[in-house]
Amino acid sequence: MRTFMLLWTTFVVFAPSLVDRAMLAHADSTVVHLIAPLHKIQASGVVVGERDTADGCHVLVGTARHVISSDTGEIRHLTLEDENGPVAIATAAADSGDAGAAVFVTPGRCDTNAYRVATVAAAGVERGQKVFGSGYPFGHKFFTWGTISEPVVSMQLTEDGPTIKSLSAVYPGAPGNSGGPLFDIFGRVVGVLSGGYPAAPALAFFASAAQLREAVGKLKGWEI
User: Fold this and answer.
1) pTM above 0.90?
2) Residue 189: which of 101, 65, 93 has the closest Cα?
3) For residue range 134-150, what is the model confidence (pLDDT) as tens digits?
4) CATH superfamily assigned to domain 27-117
5) What is the pLDDT of residues 70-120, one digit of tens each?
6) Helices (H), the chain
7) CATH code 2.40.10.10 region(s) in the chain
8) CATH superfamily placement of domain 119-208
9) What sign for the dihedral angle of Cα 31, 37, 38, 43?
């Protein structure tokens, strides 16, 4: 038992150094910079799907609900941004409701592998679990480790039992980081940054992976 506890403690404490660097690089490459030029807003998102159809390539991006819609419910004009400027304009969009996750579809470039696609976790998270996140606070790429502080901020009862709607983590939020993904140590998306708490700037709130899946389920022809 002591040996198991020692190994588990070592793994948790030193997780950042034990995680596959190639996996970290892949997860980080799925994160995209979002711009809403008409509203002068910068934010973050994560590519969770890609589909090549008769009418062209389409990319599915997950983010926070407040990134894609204003207080009046208006869908913002969003673009993905790379080093050469805007590359695509958002089309269809859907959200998960109160928990704050959203997804939108945008034209892409499937033939050039312009975007890497992240895997969205199927299971929930646990208190103390090591996580890492990436985004574009103040328009600049950012990557850091964090820790789940309390996974059950709000719950939803479903046919499969209770589902975590949102969670919190010891993780620095900043303007422009909204919608950025939170990954587990296997590189799976467990949430997207949906808000913060001014009195505790080191604490951030995330809409869960379950809520991302709910939003995707509202878009015809898409699944993750």
Assistant:
1) no
2) 101
3) 999 888 888 888 888 76
4) Trypsin-like serine proteases (2.40.10.10)
5) 665 566 667 776 655 666 667 778 887 666 888 888 877 776 666 789 999
6) 2-13, 15-18, 21-29, 65-68, 209-216
7) 27-117, 119-208
8) Trypsin-like serine proteases (2.40.10.10)
9) positive
